[in-house]
Amino acid sequence: MAEPMTAAMTSARVSPRDRPRRRMSGRRFLAYAGAILILCYALLPLYWMVITAVRPVSELLAIYPSWIPGGIQLDRFVNIWSAIPLASYMLNSAIVVLITVLIGVSVAAIGGYALSRFEFPGNGLILAFVLFTQTIPTVVLLVPFYTLLHDAGLINTRVALPISYTVWAVPYATLILRGYFRTAFSRDLEDAARVDGCSRFGVLWRIVFPLSLPGLMSAAMLIAVFAWNEFLWASLIASQESIRTVSVGLNQFVGRFGTNENLPLWMAGAVFVALPPIILYVAAQRFVSVGYGVTER
């Protein structure tokens, strides 16, 4: 009896450092190495943008620019706010993003829920049409959209961009939410609420939407990033200074002042433009990761 107790006490005294370590398999090593390479590839443009914003102007014209700047000049991050109305541009973009997300997610949620729950004549046809809209290049739609907005007198108005972005964002957001509604939770919860006397819209508001918050956040993030970064269409229908978005404003800054000596100033503005989507994604990461992880079976 004493021998087993002695062996157990001896094993308990063994330090974690003395225990044999598990060797990393070749497959896991390749997976980690691939992940690190992908991460470096994704962060490289951000790193180059930041060091370009802080490096001296003399280093910009070098034939072989260095990966580490010879000096750091942080005054560009202050001067960019006075060089162009960056705050006004960012406010305009934020308004466009907010309106587009609210309308786009609301319409896509109702449409995705209807396509996932109800079987009616033409259900498959509607789904096929929504899928077909995703195969049409955006450039093909520019002229028809511009003609419609011009005839309606909406060019260079604040409602033109939210209307356009909502029309473009609703189809793929509907597809995302349709797949989420089909697999995220059981329909028994909805049936139980219906038995208790809850209306269809009551079920949607009290049961479906709260349980689908990760999916709704994922769709909202995709729409927000699209509306914040879009440049081509915004440069066509929102060229006035008062309604210009941040992507168009930075491009106008380059066209006005050139890209040699003012390139660090431009990159400083680009750093500020890249911060809101990053902050938003980090803040909503818990919901977004769950929403992306649920796919249609």
Question: Quick recap of the structure?
Answer:
The chain has 297 residues and is mainly α. It has two domains: 25-73, no CATH class; 77-293, MetI-like fold (Orthogonal Bundle).
Structure characterization notes:
- There is one protein chain.
- Helix content is 72%, strand content 0%.
- It is mainly alpha-helical and 297 residues long.
- It folds into two domains: 25-73, no CATH class; 77-293, MetI-like fold (Orthogonal Bundle), CATH 1.10.3720.
- Helix 10 (213-229) crosses helix 14 (285-293).
- The longest helix is centred in the middle third of the chain and has 32 residues, at 86-117.
- The protein is globular.
Q: Topology, please?
A:
Elements: H1 2-12, H2 26-54, H3 76-83, H4 86-117, H5 123-133, H6 138-151, H7 160-183, H8 188-195, H9 200-211, H10 213-229, H11 232-237, H12 246-257, H13 263-283, H14 285-293
Mean pLDDT: 82
CATH superfamily of the largest domain: MetI-like
Instruction: Kindly provide the radius of gyration, computed on alpha-carbon positions and rounded to a whole number of angstroms.
Output: 26 Å
Which structural class is indicated by helix and strand composition?
mainly alpha
Helix and strand element order: HHHHHHHHHHHHHH
Task: Considering the chains and any ligands shown, give keywords for the structure.
297 residues, mainly alpha, MetI-like fold, 2 domains, 14 helices, globular
